[in-house]
Amino acid sequence: MIDPPRSPLLDALLQRYRLAFGTERPPRCFFAPGRINLVGAHLDYNGGDVLPMAVDRGLYAAAALRDDGRILLHSLDQDLVVEVDAAAIQSRTRPEWGWAGYPLGVWHGFAQRTGKALGLQMVVGGDLPIASGLSSSAAIEVVTAIALDALHGTQIDRQQLALLAHRAETGFVGLRCGIMDQFASALARPGHVLWLHCAGPRWEHVPFDPAACEVLVMDTLKPRALAKTGFNERVAQCATAHELLRVHARDLPHLAQYTLADLELAREAMDEVLLRRARHVVTEMERIRAGAAALRAGDYAGLGAQLSASHRSTAVDYEVSCAELDAITAAACAHPAVFGARLTGAGFGGCAIALVRPGASSSVARLVAERYSGQFGAPPAFDLLRVGTGPGELRGIG
Ligand code: GLA
Q1: 299 classed as catalytic
Q2: Is the CB of 107 inside a 6 Å radius of any atom of ligand 1?
Q3: What is the layout of strands, in order, in the sheet containing 202-207?
């Protein structure tokens, strides 16, 4: 159980629940956080390490079970209301289900795993910018998984709930993402970031000191229109690069385990694009080791340097940045109180993060807004995020 936020969001959620479903079945309320990833860009689906931090924003859900096999889903942020018979939910989402594909995918996986296929009525609402790289989709999956588990009293552990949420995204919705986002949300611990070794998966929690470093989120407001196709293309390219390395260098289970020397051995067999994709993955593993060591030592300048180097590699070798993200990170790094900056999430638009010395974020935001508007004609949006409390049921509600 976690304490409810002092946010007006919860009142709005409960009000909408009553409006939609009446008072006959009072809801229980749940929260799952969004995340930023400090270092480890596009490493999760390559069997590498990532260093996500669950933040103090995310997705809330007010939910109750129904005994008529109907699933009714409302969102505070989306007009689309979805009402569907449990029997109509097969292995894939449908275009007309829109955002509801995520919770329906989790419902489907949960029903398959437990054999429990009761109906559900749920309202969700969040305080994360949607589709901007802070993982609102993983948060909605994880909050649904936690809600279904609690409402059915199944006591499934958090790792299994994270995997259930992940399968909803890869199988039901069809984005071939790695496990980072769902694990970051489901396994978050207050005051810590998650150092996740995706190949295991194994993980450890590393303290993050909010008094030494703040996270300024800078939203380019550029929609991530190409994110799904571009993302799946990167996944496919990495798989091809891995195949070639297995033949021409050595046979290792994951692309992230190779070295630059291995890439040299396979250089002739790989085209230049594949080589750059693989080089990003291999060098990002070095950056995450250095970044995690810096974090453990409380060296936020050292951590920041790895963020900025990671951004350059995602821009040049992995090509998932864009002019807006390059400009916004460069503008932030021009401020003396910024330790480092990089895009977050899949890239292709959306948000970047800057690690900032506490107290300086307004001045950083002013500088970035001025430079960015000069170049793109409109200012970005900013948010100051804190390390969050982790997911769970909200105490004393319902
Ligand atoms: C998206 C995916 C994650 C991860 C990141 C890139 O957020 O959902 O699994 O691959 O991109 O690091």
Answers
A1: no
A2: no
A3: 49-50, 192-197, 202-207
Are both 171 and 254 inside the same structural domain? no
Does residue 285 have its Cβ closer than 6 Å to ligand 1? no
Do both 197 and 232 map to the same domain? no
Task: Indicate the number of domains in the chain.
Answer: 2
CB–CB of 198/48 below 8 Å? yes
Q: Give the CATH number, domain containing residue 219.
A: 3.30.70.890
Report CA(42)–ligand 1 centroid distance (Å): 6
pLDDT in tens, 194-214: 999 999 999 999 999 999 999
Residues 256 and 322 in one domain: yes
Threshold 0.85, pTM exceeds: yes
| HSE-up (13 A, CA, CB side) for residue 155 | 0
**Residue 1 in domain:** no
How many helices (H) and strands (E) the chain has is answered by: 11, 13
Contact, 310 vs 41, CB < 8 A?
yes
Calpha distance 59→106 (Å, rounded): 15
Compute, in angstroms, the gap from residue 198 CA to the centroid of ligand 1: 12
pLDDT at 299 over 90: yes
Q: How many CA atoms lie within 13 A of 281 on its CB side?
A: 29
Are residues 200 and 72 part of one domain?
Answer: yes
- The CATH number of whichever domain residue 41 belongs to comes to 3.30.230.10
Alpha carbons within 13 A on the beta-carbon side of 359: 2
Tell whether 162 and 230 lie within a shared domain.
no
Name the residue of 35, 36, 39, 42 whose CB sits within 8 Å of the most ligand 1 atoms, as the mutation to test its pocket. Answer: 42
Considering the candidates 44, 49, 149, 181, report the single residue annotated as catalytic. 181
Under the banding of pLDDT at 50, 70 and 90, the label for residue 392 is very high
Structural domain boundaries, residue 59: 8-208+388-393
Which atom of ligand 1 is nearest the CA belonging to 179?
9
166 CA to middle of ligand 1, Å? 11
Provide the H-helix boundaries in the chain: 8-21, 101-114, 136-152, 158-167, 180-186, 227-248, 260-266, 272-296, 300-316, 323-333, 361-376
User: CA–CA separation, 338 vs 214, rounded Å?
Assistant: 10
